[in-house]
């Protein structure tokens, strides 16, 4: 699984990266997690509100922090 956390470096973006890494570990998923901070790369995904989460090339969430249960569902 390829996971990208999109965000320019704000506190919520950093928190989403941390939550994602924790959820992946707890679920036992084999995944690569990349933090994308370049605004031009973020815009290529069509994301206008960060933080955003991209799983296998598809934007699954943007503009907010998901709860733990929701995040795990998005990654499953």
UniProtKB/TrEMBL annotation:
Disulphide linkage map: 10-13
Entry-linked PANTHER family: THIOREDOXIN
Active site: 10 (nucleophile), 13 (nucleophile)
SUPFAM superfamilies noted in UniProt: Thioredoxin-like (SSF52833)
InterPro entries with a match to the protein in the record: Thioredoxin-like_fold, Thioredoxin-like_sf, THIRX-like_proc
Lineage, uppermost ranks: Bacteria, Pseudomonadati, Bacteroidota, Bacteroidia, Marinilabiliales
The Thioredoxin-like fold domain, residue ranges: 1-75
Coiled coil: none
Transmembrane segments: none
Source organism (scientific name): Draconibacterium orientale
Keywords, alphabetical: Disulfide bond, Redox-active center
One Pfam family recorded for the sequence: Thioredoxin_3
Record-given protein name: Redox-active disulfide protein 2
């Amino acid at each position: 699984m390829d996971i990208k956390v999109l965000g320019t470096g704000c506190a919520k973006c950093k928190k989403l990266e941390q939550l994602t890494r924790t959820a992946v570990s707890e679920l036992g998923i084999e995944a690569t997690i990349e933090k994308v901070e370049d605004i031009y790369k973020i815009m290529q995904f069509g994301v206008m509100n960060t933080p955003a989460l991209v799983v296998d090339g598809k934007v699954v969430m943007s503009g907010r922090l998901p709860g733990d249960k929701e995040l795990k569902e998005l990654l499953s």
